Amino acid sequence: MSDDIIVVDDLHKYFGHVQAVKGVDLRLKRGEVVLIVGPSGSGKSTVLRCINHLETPTSGGIYIDGVHLEDKKTNINEVRAEVGMVFQQFNLFPHLTVLQNVTIAQEKVRKRSKAEAEKIAMEQLQRVGIPEKAAAYPRQLSGGQQQRVAIARLLAMQPKIMLFDEPTSALDPEMIKEVLDVMLDLAKAGMTMVVVTHEMGFAKAAADRVVFMDDGQIVEIGPPDQIFGTPKHERTQLFLSKILAH
Amino acid sequence: MAGPDIQIPDITWRDNWREFPFWLVAIFAFLIVMAILVFTDPDIREAFLFIIPGIQITLYITLAGFAIALVLGLLAGLGRISSNAVVRNIAITYVEFIRGVPTLVLILTLAFVLVPAVSNSFGVDNRNVSIELRAILSLSIIYGAFLAEIFRAGIESISKGQMEAARSLGMNYRQSMQFIILPQAVRNISPALGNDFIAMLKDSSLASVLAVRELTQRARLYAGSTFRFPESYLVLTFCYLTMTIALSLLLRWYEQRLGKDSR
After folding, report:
1. What pLDDT sits at residue B2?
2. Do A103 and B168 meet the contact criterion of CB atoms below 8 Å apart?
3. What are phi and psi of B21, to 5 degrees?
């Protein structure tokens, strides 16, 4: 499988009779940062959710580091521990403290001791800049802080890949930057990332490639300069004119 | 032109008046009158002293039955939302069957049909299965079905994102349920579980049809042998109301604390 860490092979996904994804092919090299943009309902989140098997493809295959996810012999939990997902709504566990949010999967999945998990958790909270909130509960945090905890929770699992599903869409404008800064650091550190977002600043600063999707298909792929500067397709131009207008 | 004198209306008195729990005063008045009668009226005291030992069996049946019902309810509730069609249909059959038959009829059927059938199939003479155990099993099977619906609603009240976040961190279904979903669900449904505990305490009186010597059966025995019906049943009412009011006040207090905590 060469050094492609993610291979999406002719992915199709139906929800009932509605086809959300119509034959998507995508390959990512280790350390690559790929942005997926497109209008809502274009299937970009569905592709992302298929990559860590939160959705099961109707047909086609997903390979993570050469492991075929749809294979019945694949232990999906082992793969998921390597593929982290950041959600639009953060999805922190409200009944656990920030520290417990970051340690629970380490203890239950990675089988680390409590002390070791807490040590790693504090390192990651340091990395995202909120170690002082370790004892707080998620509801006591701002949206930006919650999303950074969600990122620390993933980093503590030491994943090979991180997926971001509109990570800043639910945030107030003044909090977007603090989350994007953390993501930029990750990109610089060589994390393989697939990001669904409309943050053009992040795209220009960190993305190796930008994928434009519409109506369940990839319309065009290219470096950010080309997609945002000189898009080839009319649909891309139309979409970009709408989101860049304001 | 001088502005009108602004008078801040003193509405706190009226609000307090409206909020005052007169119902509780009325119920406490009944309980206090009954308590005084127990001490002063020899007939009522005699009835009370005969009936009250039954409280031990009433509480035993309720606590043991509720403990088993919690386990059954959790299993059936998880079964109700299972993606496995066989498991789901077994759980739904159980819940709908129980909910479709009156509690009294179920107690008779479970105690005199199901328990003998099961004990015989295990080679145990059903005469060795005590009536207390039959009452406990009957009540727990009945309340297991009610609690299953509470557990199901509790689990479904937790946003799907919680399960997705847990699964995407590599936790399996059981771990995600145990450490992420259920702790939140149980907290949400704890008031409903408390209400069903109180309901079960009251329904334990139906065990009297099995001749279990709990409060109600003792009251019936006393009334039947002395013909002091008013004394017997007033004392019996007094016993249940004391317990249920105490429990529901405890539950209200707990709910308020729960509300404060989550703010």
Report:
1. 53
2. no
3. -80, 75
For chain B, the first-to-last Cα distance in angstroms comes to 47
**pLDDT digit string (tens) for A118-133?**
999 999 999 999 999 9
Give me the total of CB pairs closer than 8 Å, taking one residue from chain A and one from chain B: 62
Please state the ipTM of this predicted complex: 0.91
Please, which residues have CB within 8 angstroms of residue B183's CB and are 6 or more apart in sequence?
A95
Separation of alpha carbons B127 and B119, rounded Å: 9
- The dihedral formed by the CA atoms of B101, B105, B109 and B112, expressed in degrees to the nearest 10: 170
Q: Say yes or no to pLDDT of B260 above 90.
A: no
B169 neighbourhood in chain A, CB within 8 Å: 80-81, 84, 104-105, 109, 153-154, 157
Among chain A residues, the shortest Cα distance to B164 is held by A54
Predicted TM-score of the model (pTM): 0.87
The values of phi and psi at residue B84, to 5°, are -80, 120
- A26 close to A218: Cβ distance less than 8 angstroms: yes
Nearest to A219 by CA among A229, A209, A203, A232: A232
Q: What is the total residue count of chain A?
A: 246
Exposure pattern of A195-213 as b/e (b: 16+ CB <10 Å)? bbbebbebbeebbebbbbb
Domains and CATH numbers, chain B: 59-217 (1.10.3720.10)
Task: For residue A65, give the 3-state DSSP assignment.
Answer: coil
CA distance B200 to B247: 12
Q: What is the pLDDT of residue A1?
A: 47
With CA atoms as reference, report the closest residue to A202 among A219, A226, A221, A179: A179
Q: Which residues in chain B touch residue A82, judged by CB atoms under 8 angstroms apart?
A: 170
Instruction: Report residue A166 as tokens.
Output: 């509109």
Q: Which residues contact A16 (CB under 8 A, 6 or more apart)?
A: none
* A238 CA: distance to closest CA in chain B (Å): 33
Rounded distance, CA B214 to CA B207, Å?
A: 8
Contact across the interface for B165 and A108, Cβ inside 8 Å: no
- Per CB-CB distance under 8 Å, the chain B contacts of A84 are 168-169
